[in-house]
Design a protein that fits this description.
This protein is of the alpha/beta class. It contains 20 helices and nine strands. Strand 4, helix 5 and strand 5 form a beta-alpha-beta unit. Helix 12 packs across helix 13. The model has no long low-confidence stretch (mean pLDDT 95). Bound molecules: 2-acetamido-2-deoxy-beta-D-glucopyranose. 2-acetamido-2-deoxy-beta-D-glucopyranose (NAG) binds next to strand 8 and strand 9.
Length: 452
């Protein structure tokens, strides 16, 4: 592919410049203690914690049905490209619409969500929704963990993961301790309120999540994150290390160039693969190819980081458009090889019910636009990137997905940004907790146990 070569040289130059730039010590980064993202004038939070249940109005479901019946999918797939290389295959989309209309049962999914105790509480002017699940009484040792989701996901990604964390023995993991799990919806996602003012960045979210944990009585806790969740938990650890016992991530938020020594080993690992300890990476590692993948696969990011309100308008108006936009990611980001398949390999790891429930949570809350704005806020809040320089001495684990789209950060690189005490490779893609709940949970338990 010509485009890959075209960006290889500028990417290499850019990485080297960034690596040198990152040698300059960090300037003081000030994180305010408080901000206000609610509607209207600044006021203090109502700190009450209120129980919450998902209960979508029947009129929303009826309206959805009408829109699906009237959906216009009039483009046909190219005769010589019955796959996902041009995006969501329209033949497959018609089948999905049929499933959604005739077989999908939202009330069943709602019950699945409502099996978990849920609450809301006001932080920085926003109602923050979260799941709080405690282990059975038989566990004498209980450790608090916050698990953070990303885009285009929500807390539903954790519905198989949480029960393993709260009751490992029942799921064949031999552990004498269990986790009490707090899974918040990022404000603007799921059932958390949408920020009403600009500036709600990943750093703001880290601060809000910390306040949530403190309000629940957890002074010190564990963290797990992927996608934005990895960036949020990583920032939380960098800014408030006193509150974090250990950080587990299934994605290392560090691009080539973000660290001088790391970049050296990144390039060395490409030139001399035997310098990498991972056998899988010895075969595939190429720090510059990551930029090629970025160009080919992250057009959505550029749109969302610049004009989220434009990009989201039609998605918020059309459930079939929203489904194509979101579910396509569950194909490519799970395994890039799935692009070659007529059905995008969507049902290899996920059921239609699972995929549609992720979409339904965006649809019924009408919050695709606010979820997209989170990208814009990331690039506008320069502190998010500036903090990339700050080393994390808190013990950190990386559960690396072998099919992860572009983040396959070798430990030889990540150890210069994080105190990586645990590294494991798992046959999974980007949506780790959703696709591989048991291996991911196993990694969390081993990491935490080894620290004792
Ligand atoms: C990394 O974490 C371990 C376990 O807590 C600790 O013993 C070690 O000193 C830390 N290393 C660094 C470089 O902070």
């Amino acid at each position: 592919m010509g485009i890959l070569k075209l960006i290889l040289i500028p990417a290499a130059v850019g990485v080297l410049i960034a690596a040198v730039w990152n040698l300059i010590p960090e300037k003081e980064i000030i994180v305010e203690e408080n901000n206000f993202y609610g509607s209207g004038k600044v006021r203090s939070d109502n700190t009450e914690i209120k129980p919450f249940k998902v209960n979508v109005d029947q009129s929303v479901i009826d309206d959805l049905k009408n829109r699906l019946l009237n959906a216009r999918i009039s483009h046909s797939v190219l005769e010589d490209s019955d796959d996902f290389y041009y995006g969501f295959n329209s033949k497959q989309l018609l089948k999905l619409r049929d499933y959604w209309l005739n077989k999908y049962d939202w009330r069943k999914q709602e019950a699945l969500l409502n099996q978990f105790p849920q609450f809301t509480t006001e932080i920085e002017g926003l109602q923050v929704h979260f799941l709080r699940v405690t282990p059975p009484k038989s566990y004498k040792i209980v450790k608090p963990i916050l698990v953070a989701h990303g885009w285009p996901g929500n807390v539903f990604e954790f519905y198989k993961f949480i029960p393993i964390l709260t009751d490992p023995k029942k799921h064949g993991i031999n552990s004498d301790f269990a986790f009490e799990v707090i899974a918040p919806s990022i404000p603007g996602y799921g059932w958390s309120e949408q920020p009403k003012k600009t500036g709600f960045s990943q750093l703001a979210c880290a601060r809000v999540f910390r306040k949530l944990m403190l309000r629940l009585g957890f002074e010190k806790f564990y963290l797990q994150g992927g996608d934005w969740g990895a960036i949020i938990t990583s920032l939380l650890t960098k800014v408030y290390p006193e509150n974090v016992i250990a950080l587990h991530m299934n994605m290392i938020p560090a691009m080539p160039g973000s660290n001088f020594m790391g970049t050296f080993y990144d390039i060395l690992g490409w030139l001399i693969p035997s310098t990498l300890s991972s056998e899988a990476l010895q075969k595939t590692h190429n720090p510059f190819a990551k930029f090629g993948v970025l160009i080919v696969e992250t057009g959505y990011m550029h749109l969302q980081a610049t004009k989220p309100d434009t990009a989201g308008t039609s998605l918020n108006d059309s459930p079939i458009g929203l489904a194509a936009y979101i579910i396509e990611k569950f194909s490519t980001w799970t395994n890039t090889e799935y692009r070659a398949l007529p059905d995008g390999g969507l049902n290899k790891k996920f059921t239609n019910d699972e995929l549609l429930t992720i979409v339904m949570i965006y649809w019924t809350n009408g919050n695709i636009v606010s979820s997209q704005r989170f990208y814009r806020e990331f690039f506008l809040d320069r502190r998010c990137e500036a903090l990339a320089k700050r080393y994390v001495s808190t013990p950190t684990a990386h559960a690396s997905g072998l099919n992860e789209l572009y983040d396959r950060c070798p430990i030889e690189v990540s150890r210069y940004s994080y105190n990586v005490t645990h590294y494991t490779e798992i046959e999974m893609g980007h949506f780790a907790a959703f696709e591989a709940p048991k291996p991911l949970a196993t990694s969390v338990f081993k990491f935490v146990k080894d620290l004792e």
